[in-house]
Amino acid sequence: MLQVPLQPVDSLVITTLMDNVSDALLIDQGPARRPGRRGVTARVAARFLETGEAGDALQSEHGFSALLTVRKNGRQNRMLFDAGLTPNGMAENARRLSVSLKDVEAVVLSHGHYDHTTGMDGFVRAVGRTNLPVIIHPDFWSRRRIAIPGSEPFEIPSTSKSALAGAGFEVIEERQPSFLLDGSVLVTGEVDRTTEFEKGFAVHQAFHDGGWRPDPLILDDQAVLLNVRDKGLVVLTGCGHAGVVNILRYAQRLTGIERVYAIIGGFHLNGPSFEPVIAPTAAALQEIAPEIIVPAHCTGWRATHALAAAFPDAFIQNSVGTRYEL
Asked: What count of Cα atoms within 13 Å lies in the side-chain half-sphere of residue 137?
């Protein structure tokens, strides 16, 4: 594999704008800074309280979105990674956290599933018409469904190409790795599948050539890579359909950087079909030895607790509003 030189950035802040969990009682832990009750400044009318108002609490949903703030050579750039499940959830959380979306310079959508894309609606409302680049894989637009044996198939809503382009975005489709923000951020493109145990989503199908076909690999799944100076690789995943170990090993081969500082995002280890993969995933992660592990979104309760037990010093629980200062 031809290596891609990923130049270091001076610092990186990742703010979780949407995840499956919101917990106002979490305390700061290592690089994780929690908003707590005082971090949400927005107020809402509450007629059953003596004060007549309450904090406009952060929302959680089965979706994922993160805002990246990259500092390099005295400059600061921002990028949005995924947008959450509902039209307004991600943008509302940003408002309640007093986080502006107007200076976002690029958007990466990790894959085409709607729990990562629907919030582009609220993003457009927050920033207005824009010509920002949106990086996707060509298979992003595919019609998909979940076909569990014995159950009626459920078609996954797909993103409207005309709506996304009509909002003014510059849609860029890439299978290969690509750079953003003056070479500070590397989007993996299609991830090589090399492990024996990460075999994909068996009940996932896509509509091709006039019919529904098995689509377990979900090849449009992409991750984002950064190299934080003197610390190593930071890897951000949406669902991690490629397999979190595949993604990390691919990131190491692609960049030539062995040291993994942090892995943050969805690892997709939830449910009976993925639970047998938890143990080999944890074992492989111990070989890679990331210093920070933040399982989020679709990782699942059992996998999250297994990783917390296996990596007591590296594990950090994610929550909406958490800011990672890396």
From this structure: 22
Query: What 8-state DSSP symbol labels residue 233?
Result: E
CA angle 300, 298, 312 (to 5 degrees): 50
Write the burial class of residue 149 (CB in 10 Å: 0-12 exposed, 13-18 middle, 19+ buried): exposed
The whole domain housing 288 covers: 11-325
Residue type, 326: L
Asked if residue 260 belongs to a domain, the reply is yes
Checking if the pLDDT of 42 tops 80, the result is: no
Tokens describing residue 19: 């995840």
Classify residue 1: in a domain, yes or no.
no
> Is the pLDDT assigned to residue 37 strictly greater than 70?
no
pLDDT at 303 over 80: yes
The string of pLDDT tens digits covering residues 11-36 is 999 999 999 999 989 999 999 999 97
CATH number, domain with residue 284:
3.60.15.10
Answer whether residue 195 is part of any domain. Answer: yes
Domain count, the chain: 1
Q: Which two tokens stand for residue 89?
A: 């959830």
